């Protein structure tokens, strides 16, 4: 398939997926007992107050109408108004999303930069001590919940060894966030840990598989040194399955940010989501979920496109 | 090779010398000796063929000579290439030697190249591994090499990825990599086994020409005696990890001295050729009309004007084009052709697995297009199927008994467990497998045993039609012989019709009464095997037959000269 028609088709698919996500989230929201009104007005509210609230918010109209109304707002960049913060959801998210992106992208990039060489190193040293050590650490990192890992990091590197602050940068703007890089270290490490664990496993498996491929033997028979074979051939071939996994990892990253931001009191979208969830601030929750869904869809789309660039066979439709 | 060249080669110092080479593999459960006491040599300009069946250790010897064996292999003895002992050399010394002094061509061109690197770059890598040339010069030389190995439009093709090339072209690229630095020794491990016979002939021509041009010594590892006859000067026969016989190709192939060599050669199906200047080999071609004039009997399966189109629009591929064929009770129809000719597709249409785009298929007299699922299932119980890969076609998690009993469980549900067991044992007897094999797993069996299990499963319902798609292609010749024997015997006994798909013309000639030759989805010609394969009517069948190497070096030399003359005549005609 030619690249433009491929892109058009994939973008249309992405839009369809996002629409389905909005329907699902919308449906879930309205299936909650008591609905949003009870959540906002509290258990003391009278039936009349609830009815008036529902009427003001348009919550007494049929669900499909409410949905279309909501969709129309979305298209105009309006994600609704927060019940508790009394501010447009779009603005609330717009202020916090960049900070979350800084955290997640830094975690992902650092995580990958560690995971890929580690995985390759393990594959080359398969069943040697270094392989066992990294494997053990990976399983520990992967099976430790992020909040627990974060607490341990704070305890070790902020309390016992006072190297880093226990709180993330508090600034409102990105410039302020970056002016305090020391404070970013622990949150980023906490976010990157599971990334390193998971992707070093993928990379190890992919590298092992490729090392036993015939083309490696051909390259050796041509006099290429092991290091050169790893760099020129095995690396790229092993990367394709890992890139495919990256797209699916976007929601995991955001899920991690939710915990990390709460733990380190980092004013990003994760913290916003956390407080909104505790206050049943549904417009905010819905907005955050939508943003994460869009990010996931865009992530997989980007992963597919990158894969098309790395692997010419994907483009030709034979993998 | 001329007489003077031959005498020069005979006196020159060997480029490869193996002395008492032994290889032991350490597995989790045991130490497995693969090769013992192997001594041989290859002189510049000569080709030594290392032959043997699977597991004989011939590929292990080839890889040991390159120092390319897996980490669990322990090598003892000496393997000297150009003064360096490969067994004792360290990885840096080996890397300096590989691709320069000694190169290798592998069996599977589909996987031998890095799928993500352009072929020109892969060739240039081998050049720059050993010579201090700029990336640009190496790229230019890679294009020259592609031209030398006969890749059309080499400048353009250098930028292609391996998946954009055919199997034969990929093997040419692997050869280009192997000869990039004019090696003194070329090790070719089954270089044509994965290729069609016409492509095989071209690749062998290419290797022969390149070796002659540069005086390269060749160690050719193969199981194909025809290839040996076509290519080798001397032959070493391996059996159970040892060399049992070594000698000039005429002696070993025509006057074998070792008992194993004699048995091996006797099992090789020989293509009878009308134009051969010697009487046809000992075996008679399949008898004709053994059960009277078969054409009067209603066919078991019949394809009439069948076309199959995969895909739509511009990407549509016509896999079958107006194919008509019929198989009658008790007869075997051989379906031959090169890869992609549509022979397997035709077999699947006959099985009702592919619905034809146009044309009709009748199975046991019923039109398949008009049968509903339940009736069609009943029809299918009358067909047995044996496929090429005996490993993949048996469920590894079932016992042999469960595998064979499965068709009974599906189609003969009324049978008691005891009856079922009785039937399974009876059919195992028929395919000459011991009854206690039922409790074993397919993975514990040899390739030949597994294929007989497949056959038992195919025959347990006493089918009226057996569809066999390359049933012996993955087997050694001696095993192939016994499997074909069992099929023939059972066919005489049970009278089923057999649709036999194969790329091996010699096997089909011995096994099938009638033959249909396929090419690009069409039936090129069909008729009684004796007539069609001895006196073919179409140029394509003639070319196909001419490309099959016969395991007699004297005959094969004549056939090769004839084939090349025909090709050359065709070329000048084309230019005129």
Automatic annotation (TrEMBL), chain A:
Subcellular location: Cell membrane
Membrane topology: Multi-pass membrane protein
Gene Ontology BP annotations: transmembrane transport
GO cellular component: plasma membrane
InterPro entries: BPD_transp_1_N, MetI-like, MetI-like_sf
Keyword terms: Cell membrane, Membrane, Transmembrane, Transmembrane helix, Transport
Domain (ABC transmembrane type-1): residue spans on this chain: 97-303
Main location, first listed in the record: membrane
Domain of life: Bacteria
Transmembrane segments annotated in the record for this chain: 12-32, 101-121, 133-164, 184-203, 239-264, 284-306
Family recorded in the similarity comment: Belongs to the binding-protein-dependent transport system permease family.
Protein name according to UniProt: ABC transporter permease
Organism name: Streptomyces misionensis
Phylogenetic lineage: Bacteria, Bacillati, Actinomycetota, Actinomycetes, Kitasatosporales
TrEMBL record, chain B:
Region (Disordered): 275-295
Record flagged with keyword rRNA processing: no
Record's keyword terms, sorted: ATP-binding, Cell membrane, Membrane, Nucleotide-binding, Transport
GO MF, any single term: ATP binding
NCBIfam families xrefs: PRK10419.1, PRK11308.1
Localisation per UniProt entry: Cell membrane
PANTHER family in alphabetical order: DIPEPTIDE TRANSPORT ATP-BINDING PROTEIN DPPD, OLIGOPEPTIDE TRANSPORT ATP-BINDING PROTEIN APPD
GO biological process: peptide transport
Natural source organism: Streptomyces misionensis
PROSITE patterns the record matches: ABC_TRANSPORTER_1 (PS00211), ABC_TRANSPORTER_2 (PS50893)
Descriptive protein name: ABC transporter ATP-binding protein
InterPro entries in alphabetical order: AAA+_ATPase, ABC_Ni/Peptide_Import, ABC_transporter-like_ATP-bd, ABC_transporter-like_CS, Oligopep_ABC_C, P-loop_NTPase
Record-level GO cellular component terms: plasma membrane
């Amino acid at each position: 398939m030619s690249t433009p028609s491929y892109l058009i088709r994939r973008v249309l698919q992405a839009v369809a997926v996002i629409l389905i996500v909005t329907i699902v989230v919308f449906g879930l929201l309205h299936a909650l007992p008591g609905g949003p009104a009870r959540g906002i007005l509290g258990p003391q509210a009278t039936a009349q107050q609830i009815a008036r609230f529902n009427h003001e918010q348009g919550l007494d109209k049929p669900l499909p109408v409410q949905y279309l109304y909501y969709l129309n707002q979305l298209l105009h960049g309006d994600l609704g108004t927060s019940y508790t913060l009394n501010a447009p959801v779009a603005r609330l998210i717009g202020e916090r999303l960049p900070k979350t992106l800084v955290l997640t992208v830094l975690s992902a990039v650092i995580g990958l930069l560690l995971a890929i060489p580690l995985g390759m190193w393990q594959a080359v040293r398969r069943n040697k001590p270094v392989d066992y050590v990294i494997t053990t650490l990976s399983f520990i990192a992967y099976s430790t919940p992020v909040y627990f890992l974060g607490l341990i990091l704070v305890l070790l590197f902020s309390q016992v060894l006072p190297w880093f602050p226990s709180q993330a940068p508090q600034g409102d703007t990105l410039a302020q966030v970056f002016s305090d890089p020391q404070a970013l270290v622990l949150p980023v490490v906490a976010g990157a840990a599971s990334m390193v664990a998971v992707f070093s496993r993928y990379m190890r498996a992919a590298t092992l598989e490729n090392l036993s491929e015939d083309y490696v033997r051909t390259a050796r028979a041509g006099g290429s040194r092991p290091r050169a074979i790893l760099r020129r051939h095995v690396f790229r071939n092993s990367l394709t399955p890992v890139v495919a996994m990256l797209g699916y990892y976007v929601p995991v990253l955001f899920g991690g940010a939710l915990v990390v931001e709460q733990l380190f009191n980092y004013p990003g979208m994760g913290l916003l989501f956390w407080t909104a969830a505790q206050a049943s601030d549904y417009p905010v929750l819905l907005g955050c979920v939508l943003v994460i869904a869009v990010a996931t869809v865009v992530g997989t789309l980007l992963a597919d496109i990158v894969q098309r660039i790395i692997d010419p066979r994907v483009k030709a439709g034979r993998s | 090779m001329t007489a003077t060249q031959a005498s020069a080669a005979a006196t020159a110092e060997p480029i490869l010398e193996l002395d008492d080479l032994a290889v032991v593999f350490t597995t989790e459960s045991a130490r497995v000796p693969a090769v013992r006491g192997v001594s041989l040599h290859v002189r510049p300009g000569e080709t030594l063929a290392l032959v043997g069946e699977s597991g004989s250790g011939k590929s292990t010897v080839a890889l040991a000579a390159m120092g390319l064996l897996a980490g669990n292999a322990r090598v003892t003895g000496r393997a000297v290439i150009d003064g360096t002992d490969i067994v004792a050399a360290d990885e840096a010394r080996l890397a300096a030697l590989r691709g320069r002094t000694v190169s290798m061509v592998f069996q599977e061109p589909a996987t031998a190249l890095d799928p993500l690197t352009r072929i020109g770059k892969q060739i240039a890598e081998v050049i720059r591994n050993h010579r201090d040339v700029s990336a640009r010069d190496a790229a230019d030389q890679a294009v020259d090499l592609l031209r030398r190995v006969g890749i059309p439009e080499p400048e353009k093709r250098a930028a292609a990825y391996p998946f954009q090339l055919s199997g034969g072209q990929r093997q040419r690229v692997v050869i280009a990599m192997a000869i990039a630095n004019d090696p003194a020794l070329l090790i070719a491990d089954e270089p044509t086994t994965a290729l069609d016979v016409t492509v095989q002939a071209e690749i062998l021509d290419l290797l022969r020409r390149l070796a002659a041009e540069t005086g390269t010594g060749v160690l050719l590892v193969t199981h194909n005696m025809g290839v040996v006859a076509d290519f080798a000067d001397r032959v070493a026969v391996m059996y159970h990890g040892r060399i049992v016989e070594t000698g000039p190709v005429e002696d070993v192939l025509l006057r074998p001295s070792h008992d194993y060599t004699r048995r091996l050669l006797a099992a090789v199906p020989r293509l009878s050729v009308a134009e051969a200047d010697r009487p046809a080999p000992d075996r008679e071609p399949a008898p004709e009309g053994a059960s009277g004039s078969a054409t009067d009997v209603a066919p078991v399966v019949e394809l009439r004007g069948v076309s199959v189109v995969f895909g739509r629009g511009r990407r549509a591929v016509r896999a079958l084009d107006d194919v008509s064929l019929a198989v009658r009770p008790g007869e075997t129809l051989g379906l031959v052709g090169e890869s992609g000719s549509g022979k397997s597709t035709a077999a699947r249409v006959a099985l009702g697995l592919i619905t034809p785009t146009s044309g009709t298929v009748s199975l046991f007299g019923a039109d398949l297009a008009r049968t509903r699922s339940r009736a069609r299932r009943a029809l299918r119980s009358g067909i047995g199927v044996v496929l090429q890969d005996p490993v993949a076609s048996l469920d590894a998690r079932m016992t042999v008994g469960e595998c064979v009993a499965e068709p009974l469980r599906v189609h003969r549900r009324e049978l008691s467990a005891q009856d079922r067991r009785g039937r399974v044992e009876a059919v195992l007897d028929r395919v000459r497998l011991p009854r206690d094999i039922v409790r074993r797993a397919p993975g514990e069996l040899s390739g030949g045993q597994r294929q007989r299990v497949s056959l038992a499963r195919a025959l347990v319902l006493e089918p009226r039609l057996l569809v066999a798609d390359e049933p012996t292609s993955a087997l050694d010749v001696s095993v192939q012989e016994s499997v074909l024997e069992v099929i023939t015997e059972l066919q005489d006994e049970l009278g089923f019709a057999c649709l036999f798909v194969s790329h091996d013309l010699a096997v089909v000639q011995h096994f099938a009464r009638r033959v249909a030759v396929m090419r690009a989805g069409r039936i090129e010609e069909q008729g009684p095997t004796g007539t069609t394969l001895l006196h073919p009517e179409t140029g394509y069948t003639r070319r196909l037959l001419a490309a099959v190497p016969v395991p007699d070096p004297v005959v094969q030399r004549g056939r090769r000269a004839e084939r090349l003359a025909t090709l050359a005549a065709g070329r000048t005609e084309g230019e005129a």
